[in-house]
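An instance as discussed:

___
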Amino acid sequence: METKNNVTVFILLGLSQNKNIEILCFVLFLFCYIAIWVGNLLIIISITCSPLMNQPMYFFLNCLSLSDLCYTSTVTPKLMADLLAERKTISYSNCMTQLFTTHLFGGVEVFILTGMAYDRYVAICKPLHYTVIMSRERCHAIITACCTGALIHSASQFLLTIFLPFCGPNEIDHYFCDVYPLLKLACRDTDRIGLLVVVNSGLIALVTFVILMVSYFLILYTLRAYPAESRSKALSTCSSHVTVVVLFFVPVLFVYIRPATTFPEDKAFALFYTIIAPMFNPLIYTLRNMEMKNVVKKMWYHHLFGEGK
């Protein structure tokens, strides 16, 4: 006999049941969300309205900032609204939509970081061929591939979940709809689906992370032959990229690389890749990059306060 899906609404248990802690979290995440929008919009506008847009590295950084805004907006507004609500509910259709969009923009971010690593590898290891290899057509092709790969990943996660029967209970022990918490609520055995999720999310993240680390290791190895000044500039740029990669991938691997089980720590780790990483990305890329700092100063300080003496 086929099990019917009689759940129309899910209850999100959120981060805490303590109202004082929820209010504190609301203030904190409101600040974080404002910082995410201000920081990433600053990067997008500064790059788009300057000659930096013609450089592949900043073209990818511009796309990363846009994906950061989209990614965190699939989760953070709902999280903040729930922190002030008496009952944290989400409809079945909205839950599935959130699941799809979260993995879509998260996947875009993962693949863009890979594209940025490839760009730095070509720039440092094959400098004479850089302008030919990283042409504008190649950059657009890489971004198209990033979006296509993310769409395939997200659609796979969505299809693995949408056909699951939910007949109760309907409490999701998380602050947003994700695959593993939903698998716990399904009214049938989900071991095989859990394994497919590990392959689709955890294994992809692990392989991508290893590729990224290998590429940066090759970059560091190549930098040994560079003059001190050029080496220092390249190291500063690459260290920014590695910091962002570690900040994003380590929590993702903790959550998705294991079999379909959930831990209380998952919610804390999820905060890193849904809120904290998108907030720190603009700071990391701007403070460690002299070209970005000069463009921000020129565009914003001089335009707002007039030309300096």
